[in-house]
Amino acid sequence: MKTTFKSIVLLLSATFILSGCGNNNSKSAGNDGALRSSKAEKVYVAPGEHDSHYAFISGGYSGNVTVYGLPSGRLFKEIPVFSQFPTSGYGYSEETKPMLNTSFGEIPWDDAHHPDISQTNGVLDGRWIFINGNNTPRIARISLKTFETEEIIEVPNSAGNHSSSFITENTEYVVAGTRFSVPVPQKDMPIAEYKGNFKGALSFIKVDPETGRMGIKFQIMMPGFNYDLSHPGRDKSHGWFFFTTYNTEEANSLLEVNASQNDKDFIAAINWKKIEEYVDNGGGTKMPANYAHNVYDEHTHTATSTMKKEVLTVNPADIPGAIYLLPTPKSPHGCDVDPTGEYIIGNGKLSADLTIHSFTKMLDAIENKKFDGDAYGIPILNYEDVLAGAVKSGGLGPLHTEFDDKGNAYTTFFISSEVVKWKVGTWEVIDRKPTYYSVGHLTIPGGNSRKPFGKYMFAMNKITKDRYLPTGPELEHSAQLYDISGDKMELLLDFPTHGEPHYAAAIPADIVKGNSQKIYRLDENKHPYAVTNQADAKVTRNGNEVHISMSMIRSHFTPDNIEGIKVGDKVYFHITNLEQDFDVPHGFAMIGQNTSELLIMPGQTKTSVWEPKQVGVWPFYCTDFCSALHQEMQGYIRVSPKNSNIELSWTLDGE
Amino acid sequence: MKKAGIIMIIGSLLLLGLFKFPLWNIMLGAPQYPEPLGLDIYINGIQGASEFDLQNIDGLNHYIGMKTLPKPEDMWEFSIFPKVIGGMVAIGVLIGILGFIGKVSYKWFIGWFILMSILGILGMYDFHLWLIDYGSNLDPKAILKLVDEQGNPMKYDPPLIGHKILLNFDAFSYPHTGAYMMFVGMMLTIVAFFVGKKEYKKS
Ligand SMILES: [Cu+2]
């Protein structure tokens, strides 16, 4: 009996040791003390020092972009884009409500996916970030001077705006590709008649080189596939754009099975320069459309929303030689082009291998008309004719690839939770590191451009599980930072990310921080209700609308006591922050207000509406601890009955 | 006295730097102002070292009841100083020319220097009085009323020269480019005096 017990204990401990060893090896090689401390040094940014890189991470269902520092993983800011944001009043203030206007009315949220930084000659220039709203198709432009959303354009004829918002190497175009094909124009029809009737719109949005202003130049009406991701050509392939597709079966139900029948889907290669030329020469068909174009003016501090009524569409059949299909195995997801522009990488999400097409071979095959049939008139090239090679990775579920500055590529594998490093050209696997867990995108600063900056790579993981202290069933997602300066990747840091980070853009801080704006100049404030001088503060009535033109400075509002407001009035607070000092915002909150508080930056004017419902004397106050006398920064509004005849009056500077 | 005359002319002309460059500079740094706020004091007015410094200093000073910084029209000094300096430059150049052609003695050079020194000291004294008034003549309704160790109301006059701690601010007050040019110019007039003396003895 005793012996049996002993041997069981021995057996158990042996198993334990073995499994323990195995875990250590597979989970985190080199997790011992000495290495750990050197890792800490690599991500440590001492108090008062700055990170070397900015990372702009999409918030997915939060509709935001979050700004992080690398290598510290510290969160600096959330930039509201497609979502209302009570912190600043974005989407609630009268000036920013138009930003969220669409042809469906105001939509206060979206699913923000892929940020991309503007480029000049294929190199990140740090002027703007573009990002797509996935659900109600939109593209936004964020200024990297103010770190605010300046423009949002809705994309008609589109649904599930997923293969976006990638930009060409001189920021000529930002694309918006539809993930879901839909009837164009929309109509009431049987879903079962999807095949052959639905269309996939790929929109090319022209970007003004000076102002960044966007306008849809043309939409290509592609066959009814799902357009998943995309990437512009670089360098030698500049002028082309590549889109991965799935559901080339054109199934309309149970897609997980029915859209996984074809062994190969396509990468659509589009010669946009050729289509641009065609359009510039009067080609294409104008069709009625209805979509919002929202622009925020930094001088009036106000957004305007304009409804556009027309869009130019292009039928691929009308421009022979502009579009080709490259067969690509296993429902490719990510579509990535290496920095030289030669290789187009299709990440077949249902496979273990990566398929790499050669741009040169593609041009050859096109020249020699080596086609393998066509789809709706678009020539299909021979798989073997365009194939450059394959990475036999041994991983499962490849999704996304980025590149470093030394000719290596890094691919995420969702199912096997790892990043695989391989050599571009030889296709050999050099290194692989686990991620925790289920990694989607990864980002290398400049890693999707002609000039990657190298140094760091971070993976954005979908599942967090045991990486941090538990916070109930809901966990933030987790990013992991790797040092990629050596031959082997080295995991340095875990940091949580807000929302569902789909993709990120990162850039050396030096390119951005010098241009970052510190204040809004009062002398450039063109807001119609701006009060640039306390003496100009006033209250005016127009029927039941009352406009309060108010100023704020440390530590008082002008005016601070207002009488003559009546129940049923619509009271507009137009508040100007008179400070001209970096990082001195003031807040504003009004009791019972059904919109949001405001946070107003130095030199800025914001407006919010309050509709008093009860008589009384109601306070308002500053919500940002702005000075030693912040608590004194307050005022009162007297609300009288609807039929009262108390005149409007207010105090200025205590008088 | 050709050499001495030329040196005298150059020395006097260097004072013209005061029309272009600040005479004095006061920098105010605090934990909340890692990039310090600064005042550049010119002979014809005060300007911020950075664009919004004046407004920001005034904004902070209202807590302790200090007056807003004077505009050029608020102080007689800002209209008189340029005239005095301009006049002294003209006189210096004139003496230099007259010395050059041998019409006046080298002693005029040191005479100019002494007059300039007296005017300079008076100017500094006036500046000092202004600083004291500015820093201690406070609004009785001031928000922050602080007292020093002896129980007297705090004074917020920046140092005439050097460093001083004013509440949470570190104030640094030093001459600026205009003052250095004036200093070099005045030294040159002394040199002119000695060179002139030498030239006189030789002849
Ligand atoms: Cu405040």
Bin the helical content of chain B.
40-55%
Shape of chain A: globular
What global shape of chain B is seen?
elongated
Mean pLDDT of chain A: 92
Mean pLDDT reading of chain B? 91
- Largest protein interface, residues of each chain: A-B, 9 and 8 residues
Query: How much of the sequence of chain A is in beta strands?
Result: 35-45%
Instruction: Determine the N-to-C terminus distance of chain A.
Output: 97 Å
Q: What is the terminal separation of chain B in angstroms? A: 9 Å
Binned, the helix content of chain A reads 10-25%
- The structure class of chain B reads alpha+beta
As laid out across the biggest beta sheet of chain B, the strand order is 3-2-1-5-4
Q: Describe the sheet with the most strands of chain A.
A: 9 strands, mixed
What order do the helices and strands of chain B follow? HEEEHHHEEH
Chart the SSEs and their pairings:
The complex is a heterodimer of chains A (655) and B (203).
Chain A: H1 2-27, H2 33-43, E1 53-58, E2 64-70, E3 75-80, E4 101-102, E5 105-106, E6 116-120, E7 123-133, E8 138-143, E9 148-154, E10 173-177, E11 200-207, E12 214-222, E13 226-232, E14 240-246, H3 255-258, E15 264-271, H4 272-280, E16 285-297, E17 302-314, E18 323-329, E19 332-337, E20 343-348, E21 353-358, H5 359-367, E22 371-375, E23 378-381, H6 383-386, E24 387-392, E25 398-403, E26 408-413, E27 418-423, E28 429-434, E29 439-443, E30 456-461, E31 477-483, E32 490-497, E33 504-508, H7 509-513, E34 538-542, E35 545-553, E36 556-558, E37 561-566, E38 570-577, E39 586-590, E40 598-600, E41 605-610, E42 616-621, E43 634-640, E44 649-650
Parallel strand pairs in A: 12-17, 35-38, 37-43
Antiparallel strand pairs in A: 1-2, 1-33, 2-3, 4-5, 6-7, 7-8, 8-9, 9-16, 10-11, 11-12, 13-14, 14-15, 15-18, 16-17, 19-20, 20-21, 21-24, 22-23, 25-26, 26-27, 27-28, 29-30, 30-31, 31-32, 34-35, 35-36, 37-44, 38-41, 39-40, 39-42, 42-43
Chain B: H1 2-14, E1 24-30, E2 33-42, E3 45-48, H2 53-61, H3 77-100, H4 107-136, E4 162-166, E5 169-175, H5 177-202
Antiparallel strand pairs in B: 1-2, 1-5, 2-3, 4-5
Helix pairs in contact in B: 1-3, 1-5, 3-4, 4-5
Bound molecules: copper (II) ion (CU).
